[in-house]
Specification:
By secondary structure, this protein is α+β, with helices and mostly antiparallel strands. It has helices at residues 7-17, 22-34, 69-76, 87-94, 116-126, 148-159, 194-207, 225-233; strands at 36-46, 49-52, 54-57, 60-66, 82-86, 100-103, 112-114, 137-141, 167-175, 180-187, 216-220, 235-238, 263-264.
Amino acid sequence: MTNDQTPIDLAHGLMQAAPEDDNARLRFYERLADGELFLLLDEAASGDDVAPRVFEVEDQAYVLAFDREARLAAFTGQPAPYAALSGRGVAAMLAPKGIGLALNIEVAPSAMLIPPDALDWLQRTLGQGPDQVLARPSEIFAPSGLPEVLITALDTKLVTAAGLARAAYLVGIRYDDARRGHLLAFVDARQGAEAALSQAVNEALIFSGIDAGTLDVGFFGASDPFAARLAKSGLRFDIPKAEASAPASARPAPGSDPDKPPILR
């Protein structure tokens, strides 16, 4: 087994140490969904079609995936074709087919068989989108009373939103209809990224295990006077800058678009 501990290893260890802890299990599946997986193939991918290597355990089909290229290489012991997909892309591809996921088998402490019903649950959970509500803020103040697990979940989740906004501020808020709550306000969000950022916040709520938790999301430009008020009162989350993008002519890898999972063949 390889010695380096990955986010999936760490989350898996916490889940195994507390098998009755639903929150630990939720955090493992969140790391699985957010992470990049390397899917072992029988042959090189052709366009959006992939042919993963399938094996059976007690009459149940599984495909092999690893959270590091080095782990895949350690398992095969020789060059082998693979596809790099997001965990959510893998769930979207396998769940409708009733196929399970063999994760990090023989090469990591997080080695496990994830059955099809768990992947189906993950896909359905990831598909729970946020509600849209129109309201005008009248007062903002420092956030209070939010559980630390949610703050940590937001901090972790927003790392995956690299390049989608400059920063985010968590504030307490009162609206003109007297409703109170909390708002996560994104500053200088990239055009078209609003839906992805809203979904990321929604998933942070879901996977933090907070029953009936709500958190509003808003978007503001840095030049908006409201942004200065956010900076003064809010808890700031820095969002990483995007890494240098691949050349425009490069073809996206299968599964890089979660709304268009690769096709099994």
